[in-house]
């Protein structure tokens, strides 16, 4: 009987299928796990348009994450969205990264987010620049006008009105769009409006310290001596509004490139940029001993240039101190003072505060002597450096002041009296008596007595001559010639007398000074005589 042939047990190829499937599964699991990034949480004010498991997070339209959970915060004021990010999105998650919901929106700048009508809303992300990584963020309520990775220059424009301007309003240079408005908000004191603007690179190089911005929204109509003019930048600015700028040629030729955070004035129109109007105002309080004649609207001068005005003058009674106070509220336009040779990082310094530290003080002066109106002048006193102090009756700072006008005159007289009191008057009186005695002794000499007789005779002749000049206009020429001859005689007599008196004596010095005076009088009379010779009726008809 033939033995059966026993076949060897071999591994079937079918067993390779599970192995391959397991390998593929492991590879897929590894691939999935390797792509899983960090889990982040984003706080929103509303969950409108968000759906867990469906709403995506995108960066430049590339999917980088998915929302997994949507919950309420503990205080029930916010919506906390948990999202699973991809590993490739880790560089996007910086401390200052921005998140916002993209949805269809119509603004002054145009229509955005139309693609979401088909794909649905999504969350956009803009990477931050800070190196520190973060996992918790607060979403923006609206899409930012400029993203963090945009290169350019961010500046501030100060204005009193935002007519025709809104977030997203374009900034033009010679008709080309170079930037836009990011934010609009009030200043800390609510006295003006600040616009945050962004200028895209490479146009940011056009902005210097002398650049001036103005509003080109709508239509500007002007009527002047040259007729009427109608100005309109373009149809786009008429509908959407706009801002433009230029760098004029001024005395300050140092056009230094602007730095981030630089502040400028936004003028209402181009003409205002040359008229130097529309400056940002700062308010201060100043006190004077007497405010008589100071009215609201009075000008404030600094080095002869108007830089502000008086807003109001109040009379207060302090019941705590039982005293009256008269605070004067003033407004100053510091941008009228153009800063030059500025050190680096000094753009945001308060120039008025810097001047006060250097001794700037306010003085009440006469503006009109006829009406009695007063003005305020600002002057620097380097020897009296000071600073601001808080006003006891308002939230403003007090500008240092000093007496002026009548008050200053009173103080000056007081200083003169104090100085006179310090003089050694008794000693001066004794010295004067001694000098008088010495002079009397010198006059007793024979030469001086003779001189006295001659002087007395000559002076009498002078008196008669002057009387004749006053009585007769027609004999003026003859009288003046006679006066000139007598003065010459007096001069010769004084010269002869001086030869007999010692140069060291006080009398010699006194007579010498008298001789000089006589000689000057002779020169004046000669000039008058020449005029009379040229025009005899000059004394009657005048020149």
Spell out the key features of this protein:
single chain, 543 residues, alpha/beta, 4 domains, 9-stranded mixed β-sheet, 7-stranded mixed β-sheet, 29 strands, elongated
How does this structure look, described?
This protein has 543 residues and is an alpha/beta fold. The protein folds into 4 domains: 18-140, no CATH class; 152-274, no CATH class; 282-339 and 349-403, no CATH class; 407-534. Helix content is 30%, strand content 29%. The protein is built from 11 helices and 29 strands. The chain has helices at residues 16-35, 116-119, 235-240, 270-275, 351-357, 406-421, 425-443, 446-471, 476-499, 506-534, 538-541; strands spanning 36-44, 56-59, 62-72, 79-86, 98-102, 105-107, 110-112, 122-126, 136-138, 152-159, 170-173, 176-186, 193-200, 212-215, 220-224, 227-231, 243-246, 263-267, 282-287, 299-302, 305-313, 316-318, 323-325, 327-332, 360-366, 374-380, 389-390, 397-398, 401-402. A 9-stranded mixed β-sheet has the order 27-28-19-24-21-20-26-25-29. A 7-stranded mixed β-sheet has the order 5-8-2-3-4-1-9. It starts with 15 loop residues before the first helix and ends with a helix. The mean pLDDT is 77.
């Amino acid at each position: 009987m033939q033995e059966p042939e026993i076949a060897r047990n071999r591994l079937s190829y079918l067993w390779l299928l599970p192995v391959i499937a397991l390998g593929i599964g492991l590879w897929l699991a590894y691939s999935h796990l390797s792509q899983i990034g960090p889990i982040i949480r984003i706080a929103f004010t509303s969950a409108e348009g968000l759906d867990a498991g469906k709403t995506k997070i995108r960066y430049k339209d590339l999917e980088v994450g998915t929302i997994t959970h949507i919950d309420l915060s503990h205080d029930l004021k916010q919506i906390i969205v948990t999202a699973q990010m991809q590993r490739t999105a880790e560089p996007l998650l910086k401390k200052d990264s921005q998140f916002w919901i993209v949805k269809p929106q119509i603004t002054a700048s145009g229509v955005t987010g139309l693609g979401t009508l088909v794909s649905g809303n999504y969350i956009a992300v803009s990477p931050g620049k800070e190196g520190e990584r973060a996992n918790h963020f607060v979403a923006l309520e609206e899409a930012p006008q400029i993203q963090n990775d945009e290169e350019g220059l961010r500046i501030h424009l100060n204005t009193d009105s935002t007519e025709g301007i809104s977030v997203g309003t374009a900034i033009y240079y010679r008709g080309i769009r170079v930037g836009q408005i990011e934010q609009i908000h009030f200043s800390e004191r609510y006295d003006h409006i600040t616009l945050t603007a962004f200028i895209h690179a490479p146009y940011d190089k056009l902005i210097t310290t002398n650049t001036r911005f103005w509003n080109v929204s709508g239509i500007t109509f002007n009527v002047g001596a040259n007729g009427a003019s109608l100005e309109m930048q373009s149809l786009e600015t008429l509908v959407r509004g706009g801002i433009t700028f230029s760098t004029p040629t001024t005395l300050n030729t140092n056009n230094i490139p602007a730095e981030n955070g630089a502040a400028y004035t936004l003028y209402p129109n181009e003409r205002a940029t040359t008229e130097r109007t529309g400056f940002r105002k700062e308010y201060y309080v100043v006190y004077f001993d007497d405010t008589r004649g100071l009215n609201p609207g009075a000008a404030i001068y600094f080095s002869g240039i108007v830089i502000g005005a008086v807003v109001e003058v109040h009379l207060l009674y302090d019941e705590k101190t039982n005293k009256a106070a008269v605070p004067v509220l003033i407004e100053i336009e510091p941008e009228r003072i153009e800063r030059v040779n500025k050190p680096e990082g000094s753009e945001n310094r308060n120039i008025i505060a810097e001047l006060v530290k250097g001794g700037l003080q306010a003085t009440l002066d006469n503006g009109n002597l006829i009406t009695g109106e007063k003005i305020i002048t600002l002057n620097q006193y380097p020897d009296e450096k000071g600073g601001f102090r808080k006003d006891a009756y308002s939230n403003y700072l007090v500008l240092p002041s000093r007496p002026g006008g009548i008050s200053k005159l009173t103080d000056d007289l007081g200083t003169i009296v104090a100085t006179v009191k310090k003089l050694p008057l008794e000693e001066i009186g004794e010295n004067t008596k001694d000098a008088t005695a010495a002079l009397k002794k010198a006059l007793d000499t024979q030469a001086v007595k003779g001189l006295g007789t001659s002087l007395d005779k000559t002076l009498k002749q002078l008196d008669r001559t002057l009387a004749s000049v006053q009585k007769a206009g027609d004999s003026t020429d003859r009288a003046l010639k006679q006066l000139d001859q007598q003065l010459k005689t007096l001069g010769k007599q004084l010269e002869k007398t001086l030869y007999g008196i010692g140069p060291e004596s006080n009398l010699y010095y006194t007579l010498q000074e008298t001789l000089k005076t006589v000689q000057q009088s002779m020169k004046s009379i000669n000039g008058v005589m020449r005029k009379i010779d040229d025009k005899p009726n000059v004394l009657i008809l005048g020149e």
